[in-house]
Amino acid sequence: MNTDKVIAVRTTKTVYRDGDKVIKVFDEHYSKADILNEALNQARVEETGLNIPKLLEVTKVNGRWAIVMDYIKGKTLAQLMQENPDKTDEYLNLFVDLQMEIHSKRAPLLNKLKDKMNRKISQADLNATIRYDLHTRLESMPKHTKVCHGDYNPSNIIISDEDGKPYVIDWSHATQGNASADVARTFLLFTLDGKPELADKYMNLFCMKSDTAKQYVQKWIPIVAASQLVKGKPEEREFLLHWVDVVDYQ
After folding, report:
1. Sheet strands (E) in 10-125
2. Exposed e or buried b for every residue in 159-198, given b needs 16+ CB within 10 A?
3. How confident is the model at residue 248 (pLDDT cuts 50, 70, 90)?
4. With CB atoms 3.0 to 4.6 Å apart as the test, which of 47, 70, 158, 188 could cross-link to 53 if both were Cys?
5. Is residue 174's pLDDT more than 60?
6. Which candidate, 234, 206, 237, 238, places its Cα nearest to that of 220?
7. CA–CA separation, 20 vs 48, rounded Å?
8. pLDDT in tens, 189-204
9. How far apart are CA 150 and CA 152, in angstroms?
């Protein structure tokens, strides 16, 4: 297995290309359970028929756990949006249509989104009153079983050079649950990336295309923001707290 060609480097993993394969190698401290769960997520989502890279194997490379999958030659939607700003609306339409297609699928064995959110709210560095309110809000939200990506943003979509089809990558955060929570997460990702106008445009477009009330998606934002706090990124904390603290606590 050739790991000479580096495609991407993240804090806890490095992604290599070896011919028609991609090898995602995790660092030695990465949770084995999380790695196996990511591979399992990908296998389960693959069974829905969505256009995603096929999982080939879970192995070890130089003593470190790795996931091997198909290499998709092409550019990410994020790259295309940057290179062709005049086509932003066209790309955003594709982005929303693709997310709605994901939400149309079912994968009954995926972890449940509500369980994951409850766990993350419990772990968040927030006072007990705010945590209680967030748990209560979460419990009151309708339970759905739609496939949710969990980190849906333009850098996780590759437009294939070969057939022009979009492929969705990185299913490590996939769950089954309420699509509006997934939309709230994408809205926050755009905003965290310094693109508030694009975030608003995205949410308006999704709500229009899916006939979803904007207020309904907005109800999820504090819950999703609280779960994002668990990542512990200092540069994001103040911004996320702004979205979490939407009620005056007396």
Report:
1. 13-18, 21-26, 55-61, 64-70, 74-76
2. beeeeeebbbbbbbbbbbbbbbbbbbbbbbbbbbeeeeeb
3. very low
4. 70
5. yes
6. 206
7. 23
8. 999 999 999 999 999 9
9. 6
* Token pair of 119 as six digits: 């766990």
Please give the distance of CA 137 from its chain centroid, rounded to a whole number. Answer: 22
Q: Which two tokens stand for residue 83?
A: 């290179």
Apex 44 CA angle, 40 and 46, nearest 5: 115
pLDDT in tens, 14-51: 999 999 999 999 999 999 999 999 999 999 999 999 99
Cβ proximity of 198 and 96 under 8 Å: no
pLDDT tier at 236, thresholds 50, 70, 90:
confident
Which of 12, 17, 11 lies closest to 3 in space, CA to CA?
Answer: 17
Find tokens 């995205």 and name the residue.
202
pLDDT of amino acid 246: 56
Amino acid letter, residue 246 = V
Nearest to 74 by CA among 152, 164, 169: 164
* Dist. CA 37–CA 174, nearest whole Å: 10
Q: What is the DSSP letter of 9?
A: E
Single-letter amino acid, residue 105:
K
Rounded Cα distance, 247 and 233, in Å: 23
Q: What is the three-class DSSP state of 250?
A: coil
> pLDDT-derived band of residue 4, with 50, 70 and 90 as boundaries?
confident
